[in-house]
Amino acid sequence: MTTVHFTCTDCAQTIEVNDAMRETILETGCPVCTAAATEEDFAVTCE
Questions:
Q1: Per-position pLDDT tens, the chain of length 47
Q2: Measuring CA to CA, how many Å separate 32 from each of 2, 22, 46?
Q3: What digits encode the pLDDT tens for the residues 34-47?
Q4: What are the backbone dihedrals phi and psi of residue 35, each rounded to the nearest 5 degrees, phi first?
């Protein structure tokens, strides 16, 4: 199974996200501090 985590470069929060959440974060920024997000802020891990 593939898991995607978002880590904010401003506030350092890390959260597990699904595809819809990933798209929203890319459009609106970090859900915690609203800092802009880029593709590099997402990490994919395979379990």
A1: 689 999 999 999 999 999 999 999 999 999 999 999 999 999 998 86
A2: 24, 14, 25
A3: 999 999 999 998 86
A4: -65, 145
Q: Is 10 left (phi over 0), alpha (psi -120 to 50) or beta?
A: alpha
| Integer Cα distance of 26 and 36 in angstroms | 7
Residues forming beta bridges with residue 21, ordered by sequence position: none
Q: What is the pTM of this model?
A: 0.89
Q: Of 28, 19, 24, 22, whose CA–CA distance to 40 is shortest?
A: 22
**Taking the CB of residue 36, how many other CB atoms lie within 10 A of it?**
13
